[in-house]
Specification:
mainly beta, Immunoglobulin-like, 13-stranded mixed sheet, 13 strands, globular
Amino acid sequence: MEQTNPYLSEAEIVSSFSAEDFVPDGNPDKRVWQGTDRVVFDHDWMGERHFPESETQVASLWTPSYFYFAFWCRYTDLNLYEGEDPAAQKYGLWDRDVAEIFLNPCPERVNHYFEFEVAPNNQWVDLEIDFDKDPFYDHTWDSNFRHATRIDPAARIWTLEMQIPAASVNVPLIRSGWECRINFYRCDGPGDDTQRRFLAWSPTLCTGASEYFHVPARFGRIRFE
């Protein structure tokens, strides 16, 4: 019997091959990122309201052992946890400004994926998500991903690079021609949740007030070339 595709999004990003691995330094304008495919979004999780002041660009690279991602994030005023150690994982980071990746390297398991978040000041959190379990999140999971950020207050842009080990998400080797599922998000701006901006590259179309982003069937596609 032919299986029905559970994914409802046609959004796609192409990840380009990198000849060598590198350590993130928060500068996505360096040579390695030149010529990469970028996706651009400024719409909310419903795909309806647009926030050009929060425009977000994302690019991706890969080597056999690592996923790489770069973000360019426009902002108006930064909303951060101040005076905390960025080396320590910060649960609840999504209550402030943050860029997020939800990565599902095994698309046949729709409800199982991995969440990576980094704030403009390089605070971070990573979680394993599995909606077939209760609770559905595991914040003790540690991907050992690397990340670095830079803030340009004059241009009102903060930038981010991530390096995610393929082995940490149960991928032995990344290879050309492979594809899996992914979504990119921003939480941006001051105030409470009625004032903040919640952006999703592939709109989730979720009407639940507390779960704007966790709609895995709406993840887009990432292709490795």
